[in-house]
Amino acid sequence: MGWSDELPFKEEKEWRRFIDSLEAVNNISIDRCIVIHRAESIELHAFSDASEKAYGSFIYLKSISALGEVKVCLVTSKSRVSPLKQISIPRLELCGAVLAAKFMKKVKEALNPHITAVHFWSYSTIVISWVHRELKTFVANRVSKINQLSSCDQWHHIASEQNPADVLSRGLLPEELRDDSLWWHGTELLQSTYSTSVIAEPTQRDNFDCELRVPERTLETSLQSSITLTFSTFLWTFLIIILK
Fold first, then answer.
1. pLDDT score at 161
2. Which of 9, 79, 126, 178 has the highest Cβ tally under 10 A?
3. Whole-angstrom distance, CA of residue 22 vs CA of residue 20
């Protein structure tokens, strides 16, 4: 479609619905205080995910009081449109993980030295496995960036339905946003006093293995040529003839 072309009826209806739904943003309020009173422990939890349309990341602050009270608040979120060039879902999920690591660095710099623990969560077991492996250039460059900004033991797997970044990558209308607990306070897992994680093995072996770097092997051979010897013999014979 060109810029001056009229929208088809279906697309125009969806666009007008989105415009009308923006009014609901006025009903959303955000608490300024995100840390519980007299917090004894403060953790940062980043969630990332991707779809064919977008990828992104959430960061939550979890604070725990001496009495065991828990408060979880959204600190920041960021989404980006997926490239027009077709990229596999695992690679897009990796881009989401890189985004999470970059934003975590900024949040840590703003809140240090008060942070006691940092955790990263991804639905993609493939991405978590990539963090620990030697990989091809596209993946290796991004994994290298992740490893610069975080450590391997900070990355954990989380189910898709518990991942707030899944909402970010697939979209949410403003009227649905206000009462979406997963968006504002993260997964129920964060509401517990102690966070637990289960890191599963990759389930999509084809996508995982195709990114592994194939070890390069070099062979060295040594050839002894008789050219030098023949040439030297020829010169010696020629010299004797001249002397005679």
1. 84
2. 126
3. 5
* Residue 128 and residue 122 in contact, taking contact as beta carbons nearer than 8 Å: yes
pTM: 0.68
Instruction: Please list the ranges in the chain whose pLDDT falls under 70.
Output: 134-137, 194-244
Distance from C-alpha of 161 to C-alpha of 138, rounded to nearest angstrom: 28
Please name which of 124, 64, 67 lies closest in space to residue 96, comparing C-alpha atoms. Answer: 124
Q: How far apart are CA 67 and CA 191, in angstroms?
A: 14
Residue 73 pLDDT: 94
Residues listed for the chain: 244
- Residue 84 sits at φ, ψ, to 5 deg, of -65, -35
Sheet holding 39-50, edge to edge: 70-81, 54-65, 39-50, 117-122, 155-157
Using alpha carbons, select from 162, 146, 164 the residue that is nearest to residue 154. 146
